[in-house]
Every structure is written in C-alpha cells, then in structure tokens.
Design goal:
The complex is a heterodimer of chains A (179) and B (455). Chain A has helices at residues 15-25, 37-46, 54-64, 68-75, 97-101, 104-115, 157-168; strands at 89-94, 128-133, 145-147, 150-152. By secondary structure, chain A is an alpha+beta fold. Chain A folds into two domains: 4-75, Arc Repressor Mutant, subunit A; 89-168, Glutaredoxin (3-Layer(aba) Sandwich), CATH 3.40.30. Chain A has a four-stranded mixed beta sheet with strand order 2-1-3-4, with helices on one face. Chain B folds into three domains: 18-228, NADH-ubiquinone oxidoreductase 51kDa subunit (Rossmann fold), CATH 3.40.50; 238-334, Ubiquitin-like (UB roll); 339-449, Up-down Bundle (de novo design (two linked rop proteins)), CATH 1.20.1440.230. Chain B is globular. In chain B, the strands form two sheets. A five-stranded mixed beta sheet of chain B has the order 3-4-2-1-5. In chain B, strands 7-6-10-8-9 form a five-stranded mixed beta sheet, covered by helices on one side. Classes of the chains: A alpha+beta (179), B alpha/beta (455). At the A-B interface, helix 2, helix 4 and helix 5 of A face helix 7, strand 4, strand 6, strand 10 and helix 15 of B. Chain B: NDH-1 shuttles electrons from NADH, via FMN and iron-sulfur (Fe-S) centers, to quinones in the respiratory chain. Chain B: Keywords: 4Fe-4S, Flavoprotein, FMN, Iron, Iron-sulfur, Metal-binding, NAD, Quinone, Translocase. Chain B: Pfam families: Complex1_51K, NADH_4Fe-4S.
Chain lengths: 179, 455
C-alpha cells in the first residue's frame, strides 16, 4: 500500500472554506484560537478527499497560528482523522457488543468478500473501503455502519447490496445538509 | 403510560423546527428564569429536584452547580457533554436529533443559573448530522433573540456554540472533554482541581450530560419539588433508557424511575419481551462499564426483592450481586450469547479507547483483550481465568480517570457470575471453534460438562 508521504495532496483552501474556518474561529475567545482545531480539521478534511497530509496539517497550523506538532498530535489521537488516502465510500461498521450480537461480523465478511478486499484495504479503484470501528451510538438499530455524515441502520445483506449499487451510480451523498 | 417530561412532545409534527417548538410552549423556562428568578433561585430548584447526573456517574446536578466558583470573578462556562459513546447508549442522540431546541433551551436556562456567558455543546464527531442539526437550531435561537446580547432585555448575555469532537470515547470524561475543547488530545486531567474551580481555559466550568440539561426547563417551569415527586424517594424523575440487544422492540424509552425490570423488558409499552421468545441470559443495565447481571439476578435481587429501574435497586447487593443504572444503556442478551466473546468484545473496546496516559490502563486493557481473545479462540489455559482476575484488580482504582475501572468491572463481573463458561472454553476448545458456538448449542445444554462449582 502507498504511504501518505509518497502521495502528493493538492491543497486548496477555497474562499468558502476560509469563510467557514473564520466562522469556527469566531466561536472561541480571540486568544483561544487553538480550540477551533477539531472542528476546522473536519471541514478541511472533507474538502480534501477525506485525508490530511503533513503539508495540509502544516497549512492548518499556519492558519490557526499554532505549531505543526500541535496539529499532528491531535490528528493522530482521534480516529476520525485520516493520515492516508481512504476509499471514497468508507463503510465503517460498528463492531461493539450490540452490533456484534446482532450479526455485524457476518455482514462485514459479506461486504469484504463482495468487494474483494480485506478490512482497511481500499478497492484498487479507490471507491470503497471497509473498516471496523467501536460503538457509534446506534445500538438499538444494530447492525449498522457509518457512511459519510450519516448512519445506515438495521443493515442486511440486501441493504448492503443496494448501498453499493447506489454508490456506484453516484446516488449517495456523503454530506448531510440540515437546511 | 409513565410520566414523560423529555419525550412528551417528541411526536408533535415539526417539533424539530423552532416555530413548532416555540408554539408548543418552548423557551418558556428562559423567560421565567431570566425575568422572575435570580440565578441562585434556579440553582436551588435544581437542587430540590435531586436530579442525579444522567451521563452515568449519577452525581447530583444541583450539588455540582453549587460548587462552581462565582467569587473569583473569572468567566464561567457551562459545557454540555454530548460525547455519548458508552456502548449501549444512544439516548442523547435521540433527544438532539428530534427535539434539538429542548437542549438549547436547557443550556440557556442553566447557563443563566451558573452566570455563564459563553457555553458549549461538545458533540462526538460521528454524530456529524446531529452536529449540523444543532448548528442550525442555534442559529434559529440567535435569530429569535434567545441568544446573544441582552436577552429579552434583561441585560443577560450568552453565546452558545456546538463543538465537534474527533472520535474518542475518553472525551466523555469531563476533563478529557475540556482538553479536547481546548484543541488538544483527550487526556484526562488529574483532579483536583475540579472543573468547577478550574475547567475550560482554567475558568470555572460545569460539565453536564444532554439528558440532565434537557430536564432543566421542566424543573424551572414546575419546580424542583414537583420533579422530586416523580420516581422513587432516592431516584427522582424520569430517565431515558436506550434498550438494545435481544429484545423485540429496541429503542429509546422514557421511564419513571422505579418501574420493575420485569415490566421494562416484557411489557409492550417498552421492550416487548425477548426476541424470538428465547430465554434471557444476561443483562448489562447501564452501559458497557457496569457489571453484567446473570439471569437469576435480573428480575430479583439477591434478597428476593423485585429488581427495579432505580439507582438504589440496581445497586442492591453491591458488585457481588448488583450493578448500576449508569447511562441507561440497557443491553439484553439471550441464551445464544457467549459471555466470553462479549467480554472480549468490551475489552477490545476499552483497549482501543484507552488514552494511554496511565500504565495500568494502557497495558492492562491490552492484556485483558489478548487473554480473553486467547480463551475465546480455544487457546486458553486454566490459569488464564485467574490471570484475568489479577489484571483487572490491578487496573481498578489505579488510574487518573474512571476508564480503568470501566474496563475492569465488566471482566470482574463476567468471571464472578459466569466462571463456568470460561472454564468450558478452556477445557473444550474443539467445541468453541465457530464464533457462533452458542447459537446452535446454548451453554445451558453443555454446562454439565463443566463439573466445578461456580464461584
């Protein structure tokens, strides 16, 4: 597998993204800009194919006005920040007790074999990836997975088939719009 | 139907929106508190309610509020803990997703009581769509004049923002949450000082759970004394229970504290009975951290009394024969469940989520996971069971934050109540080769193969 340092990431902080970063910085006192780091990282990652290269983390540090190491240590601590390119459609299956009790292991096996990959291995075209994660807070609606901003619950093999088809057809929006 | 104060309007069409929420009487507690009560009067009502914190620890909310330092003159903050990550728990998400303005109303009224002018809701990153729902609802509340400068012309200012985390169970621990809100790794702080004295940016801070804060509007409108009339003497009010596992109707239910566990599991109003009518084997009543109960201690306590959905009844018997109501993450297991596998699953969770600061937790959770995996996959040794007991006892009480205890307790309780199942795994490895070994042959049918008495 390619390591992140082998891959160039095009950094593009658009004016719209910069406006959003400034809005987030405005949520904290002027001398506490570092507090905005996690929310900013989410938006920056979303705008860059869902991963954060060293160069991109350096850029975030520069915008906030903190040291690069302060960004690296945060990115490496939290599971939602990716330090390498990931599949465009990342199926994150909850594998904790309630989902395990309701058959998530079989579903993960099924999904991996259907996509011809192992857990944590993007498909060669970069479209899909399967990952096992810990409790997502959907225990009553098990088994389930996260796909982008939202959850897919009460999963069955048939539903997985449909979701994969929808992804291939470009019918899946990864970002939730509350408006 | 029990009394409902949080979910009573959840089915009103459009209650998610500001207009409908307001039309249904929403934000009245802000008006009442700001216009006719002093901050301390609000604190006293919450004290009178005897509401215990709904995040899991059950610390009385009014008492927590009374500890906040109002004398130093430093800015104060209220931070809502919406980092719901305890396995089995999904109630806060339900409130925020379907009636977001209730939490915002509670945040304003509670911030006023604490004389805080800058407050935050810290939500776990995976609840990204709920984060967006809350951001929108907060904008609506600003536009309607409930937030910002000089609210309702009373001179009270409040800014409220929602802050999104990055995926880390440990950030549900209040000092780790504060670190994370400061833009750092979620490493819990050594206490004291407690957040009420030195919290967010070293300012006095109160951290409360979503469900606790959402009860504040009702308490302010109806009085703490009225709230205390609901439930039992020691467990006042209502509690959201997230029910999951092998039951007919998983979901979020608001119960009046004090109903029986039997009724909660079996009545059609709540869980609707066991899935496929299979036998009940075990219960985790309050999230993965609390001790698991075996079948004979679920409906009755060790003294033969009815087990109730209350703080005191769940704890009856201590760790020897009781558990805790915790976060209300109520996980029901039937006879197809393998307790060893489930305990391994929980240990993997804690190992993954340990922040790594304290060696007993960082190393111990890894050992627990590895030894349990060895037993579950048929490579266990008889002495592994005592080894597990030894490891868990060395984590408990020896860490900065309660994650260590939370990792130790489920293992201790599983061995205490289901030791014969561990012995079966060690002695009959050929019978547990498939991961669904108890689906086709429940343990009850093979228990006789393990001769030794359960301790």
């Amino acid at each position: 597998m390619k390591q992140s340092h082998d891959i160039q990431q095009t950094i593009n902080i658009t004016p719209a993204l910069m406006d959003r970063i400034n809005e987030l910085l405005g949520h904290y006192p002027a001398d506490k800009r570092k507090s905005a780091l996690l929310p900013i990282l989410h938006d920056v990652q979303d705008a860059h194919d869902n991963w954060l290269s060293v160069e991109l983390m350096d850029k975030v540090a520069e915008i906030i006005g903190i040291k690069p190491i302060e960004v690296y240590e945060v990115v490496s601590f939290y599971t939602m920040f990716n330090q390498r390119p990931i599949g465009k459609y990342m199926f994150e299956f909850c594998q904790t007790s309630c989902c395990a009790t309701r058959g998530v292991e079989d579903l993960m096996d099924y999904t991996c074999s259907k996509l011809g990959v192992g857990v944590g291995q993007p498909t060669p075209d970069g479209m899909f990836e399967v990952r096992g994660v810990e409790c997502l807070g959907a225990c009553g609606y098990a088994p389930m997975m996260q796909l982008g901003d939202t959850y897919r619950e009460h999963l069955t093999k048939e539903k997985i088939d449909q979701i994969i088809e929808d992804c291939k057809a470009g019918k899946v929006n990864l970002y939730y719009n509350a408006e | 139907m029990g009394k409902q104060i949080l979910l009573d309007k959840i089915n009103v069409p459009g209650i998610k929106t500001y207009e409908v929420y307001r039309k249904e009487g929403g934000y009245a507690s802000v008006e009442k508190a700001l216009k006719s009560m002093t901050p301390d009067e609000v604190v006293n009502q919450v004290k009178d309610s005897q509401l215990k914190g709904r995040g899991g620890a059950g610390f009385p909310m009014g008492m927590k509020w009374s500890f906040i330092d109002k004398k130093s003159g430093k800015p104060r903050h209220l931070v809502c803990n919406a980092d719901e990550s305890e396995p089995g728990t999904f109630k806060d998400r339900y409130l925020m997703e379907y009636i977001p303005h209730l939490l915002i109303e509670g945040m304003i009224t509670a911030s006023y009581a604490l004389e805080a002018n800058l407050s935050y809701i810290y939500i776990r990153g995976e609840y990204m769509w709920v984060f967006k729902i809350l951001e929108k609802a907060i904008k609506e509340a600003y536009a309607a004049g409930w937030l910002g400068k000089n609210i309702l012309g009373t001179g009270y200012d409040l800014d409220l923002y929602v802050h999104v985390g990055g995926g880390a169970y440990i950030c549900g621990e209040e000092t780790a949450l504060i670190e994370s809100l400061e833009g750092k790794r979620g490493n819990p702080r050594i206490k004291p000082p407690f957040p009420a004295i030195s919290g967010l940016w070293q300012n006095p801070t109160v951290v409360n759970n979503v469900e606790s804060i959402s009860a504040v509007p009702w308490i302010v409108m109806n009085s703490g004394a009225e709230y205390a009339k609901i439930g039992t003497e020691k467990s006042t009010g209502t509690k959201l229970i997230s029910a999951s596992g092998h039951i007919k109707k998983p979901g979020v239910y608001e119960i009046e504290l004090g109903i029986s566990v039997y009724d909660f599991i079996n009545s059609d109003e709540y869980c609707g009975g066991m899935l496929d009518d299979r036998p009940l084997k075990a219960l985790v009543p309050g999230g993965s951290s609390v001790p698991i109960l075996p079948a004979h201690l679920i409906y009755k306590t060790a003294n033969g009394e009815d087990r109730l959905m209350s703080y005191e009844s769940m704890q009856d018997g201590g760790f020897a024969s009781g558990s805790m109501i915790g976060s209300g993450g109520f996980i029901v297991y039937n006879d197809t469940t393998c307790i060893v596998r489930n305990t391994w699953n929980f240990s993997r969770f804690y190992h993954h989520e340990s922040c790594g600061q304290c060696s007993p937790c960082r190393e111990g959770t890894g050992w627990l996971e590895k030894v349990l995996h060895r037993i579950e996959t048929g490579h266990g040794r008889e002495e592994d069971i005592d080894l597990l007991w030894s490891i868990q006892s060395k984590i408990e009480g020896n860490t900065i934050c309660p994650l260590g205890d939370a990792a130790a307790w489920p293992v201790a309780a599983a061995i205490r109540h289901f030791r014969d199942e561990f012995e079966y795994h060690v002695r009959f490895p050929e019978k547990i080769k498939n991961r669904d070994h108890f689906v086709h042959e429940p343990f009850e049918k093979v228990r006789h193969l393990v001769s030794k008495e359960t301790v």
